[in-house]
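Q: Sequence in, structure out?
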Amino acid sequence: MAVNHCKARFRFRPVFSQLRGWPVVFDYQRFLTMQRAMKAVCSLRVLLKRKPRKDDSRKSGKVTSLAEAPLRTWNEMRTELYHLVESGQREKSERLLEELRRQYDVPSADISWKETWGLEKDQLILRTHAKRDIAVAIKNVESTGRKLGEKEKHQLETIASHWCYWSPTAEDHKNDSWMRYLRFSYPSLKGLQPVLDSLIWADEMARYPIGHTPLPPWLFLLATSSKFYVYNFQNDSMVEAGDTLTEVLDGMRHDGWDNETIWREVVSPTVNDTDYDPVDYFPVYSGMRHTAAEHPLEHEVHEFVSPDAERM
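A: Exactly. Output:
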């Protein structure tokens, strides 16, 4: 495991247990018990609110279109999809996955195939962002001056499908406080640009389904004109992931972010500077189930201003 040189300054430690390919942030058995109770209540509400139909399709119990079917809760659909994916029922999984995506755009549900990542079974992944548009990731890499060929674009798409639940960083968030902090902390990484991140934007959090627990930030893929890097928010550590996407893909398949024999750590010169803590600049939402109310942040996100700018 990569050495963490800055535990003293990294105050925040979100609750984050990891099952291979399935990050869990809540008591699953307790969740299932509550979900069954919610399902019974929701079924009763549907029956009470259902309006009479003029045709006889109501009498036969048939639904003539998806639009006429009662909406299912996020937790109900997510739980069913999880079991379908885990049991290897791919055809049914893909149908329910599309239905879930139509009803809930965020978090974006996805499936990591066992063949791609060397997993024991397929895994349901809930990505923090609403979209996983590979064209955005390609643009992010090429903003460093690189030009990606078709093979590299395919490799990047595969990397973006990793079970660490990251997604392409949107253009209007590439210079947020968290990114300015990383550039300041690692000044030797000239022209550092974000490619994939595991954050949640405020407008996405406002659309999160009731009952879902937002995941904390984890891995970030970044690039310069010559190298790729992976930042681990959980450990506040940066590792050099290689010169090419081939090296990044191979490293991700072998948990390179957590294995110093695969990827070497890049030590920040500000490692002992207690004035700068990453938790001040990354948006981290409370690890509680989402409700109809505004979801609180774990801490206020500060505007990052470099010391050079302050002296001007």
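Strands lie at 17-19, 22-24, 108-112, 123-127, 167-168, 193-197, 219-223, 228-232, 237-242, 265-266.
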